Each structure stands twice: as structure tokens, then as C-alpha cells.
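Quick question, first post here. What does this chain look like in 3D?
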Amino acid sequence: MPTLADLGYENAGDGFRHPHKKPAGGELTEIQQTYNKVIRGIHGVCERANSLLKTTFKALRRVNLDPSRITKIAAAALVLLQLEYDRTV
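> Answer (accepted):
Ran it through. C-alpha cells below.
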């Protein structure tokens, strides 16, 4: 499954999608610029959701569980937030 990441994960492998870097002395193509805008837009929404979950549920601030377990906990927390605010994040 492709995973969105920032430039810190640039050489992490094929499963990570990160923005294109501007080449030295060059410019990004229009397609690369559009791709970066899409990544930034999605990243912003995800960061906001993550922040809301962590500020609402103290248990999610420092987690060192197996990724599949934390995914289930975060999904349950998201459902609780949706019920509380009567909308999706």
C-alpha cells in the first residue's frame, strides 16, 4: 500500500510517496508541481486529524505499539470524534 511521506523518507523505498525535490539549478515540471500540491493538500488534512486525535485522547500521544494495533485504536478514536462532533474530520 503506498504511504504518503515527507522528504525525510526520500530513500525509504518504493512504497513511500513523497514530494519531488527541486533539482539543483533547475525547476520542477508542471506535473511534478501538481503532484507536490496534491501531496501537501492530503498531508495537511492528515496532520490536522492526527493533531485532533492526539489532543483529544491522551493515550495516543506516546504510543509504541505494533502498527496494526495502533491503527485499530486510532480508528476507534476517530469514530468517537465523529460521534462527538457529528461530522467527519
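The chain has a mean pLDDT of 79.
The chain has two helices and two strands.
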